[in-house]
Amino acid sequence: MDESETTKPTTTTTAASNPNSRADEPPNAPKPRVALGPGPGPAMSSVSSPLAARAGHELPFVQPSSYLRPSSRSHTIPPVATPMSPIDEEQMQGLQGMRDFLRVRTSYDVLPLSFRLIILDNDLLIKKSLNILIQNGIVSAPLWDSHQSKFAGILTATDYINLIQYYCQFPEHIDNLDKFPLSSLREIEKAIGVLPIETVSVHPSRPLYEACSRMLKTRARRIPLVDIDNETGRETVVSVITQYRILKFIAVNTEQYTSLLKKTVREIGLGTYTDLRTGSMTQSVLDIINMMVTSNISAVPIVDKNNVVLNVFEAIDVIPIIKTGVVEELQINVGEALSKRGEDFGGIFTCQEDDRLDSIFITLRQSRVHRLVVIDDNWHLKGVISLSDILKYVLFYGDDGDYFPSS
């Protein structure tokens, strides 16, 4: 609006000259114009619009507040970002350094100098596969489709839990369980309505960041490295890396960054603290297995009547229990089942909500950790931190980009 428009004269009525004005109205506010009766010219409306032109004036009345209302074409000014505290800056610096490390290192770099790899053919009977895992002291193995010469997934303790569920739902098929090959796991999963076996894989020369993203997207706890021969186009399973091995690799090689993670578990909201599933020492293994399947979890904290943590029943604890047969061992209680653990069992790892993330990485660097049970000073159960929780925080916290990049 130019200056000639703003200096047009207008006539106003002050509160002092108008005995009918209200005390709570601004003195210059336009008053309703009431029609008094017939007169020359068109009849006036009972209440005039604030923008309607008044007789004798070229421009309408304008209230001062109308200048303060934002125009529909105006742009909203973005809020000013609150500066980060020094501890937040250090935390983000540490996370960014770890992410840059994961983007320049490959999955192949995680492998130790020497290792063994056991691959099971899809035509192998499920019962024989269990014996192979027990004899070799392993809890998982890649599967191979010899008919198509390609990677066919990975066998884990969860598959044996699914087999137990299948027996519970279809007891009439118990006599056929010894005849099921590994390839029938797909049909078993469909029959009991659970997620299929993990078939996600990654090329060993791809960035480690990509392997981590795929694992988190598919909720896989391990991922096979599958290479492809350039001449024949056939696949070759190189090895399998787990979330634990990846986090240990990070902890060992990026201590300058993990030492910057000074915020506590409570401050970053790490872990699960609601809807926790727990069990007791006197419950049957079958009850715990049913709980794990229905809740889609891989471990159940074992507590007493006061919610004090006594132990943790994990999916891999099923393997030594059923080695002599699926049916006979399912009704034993949890306490007896946990006593069957091997001598190499690493123990239960705990932490408190006031523990810092850098201390957790020290634990990962020094011990074989699969999860952390969060307790208070009196060992009452507060929550559970999985390796997936830690890996997800490292990769994605504060990142607005694509969490799960395509291959």
From TrEMBL:
Biased composition (Low complexity): 7-21
Assigned GO CC terms: cytoplasm; nucleotide-activated protein kinase complex; nucleus
Keyword Nucleotidyltransferase set for record: no
Compositional bias (Polar residues): 63-75
Any Pfam family: CBS
GO molecular function (one): protein kinase regulator activity
The entry's keywords: CBS domain, Repeat
Region (Disordered): 1-50, 63-86
Record bears the keyword Repeat: yes
Superkingdom in the source lineage: Eukaryota
Residue span(s) of domain CBS: 194-256, 272-329, 338-401
PANTHER family: AMP-ACTIVATED PROTEIN KINASE, GAMMA REGULATORY SUBUNIT, LD22662P
Family, per entry: Belongs to the 5'-AMP-activated protein kinase gamma subunit family.
The protein, known as: CBS domain-containing protein
Organism: Xylaria hypoxylon
Organism phylogeny: Eukaryota, Fungi, Dikarya, Ascomycota, Pezizomycotina
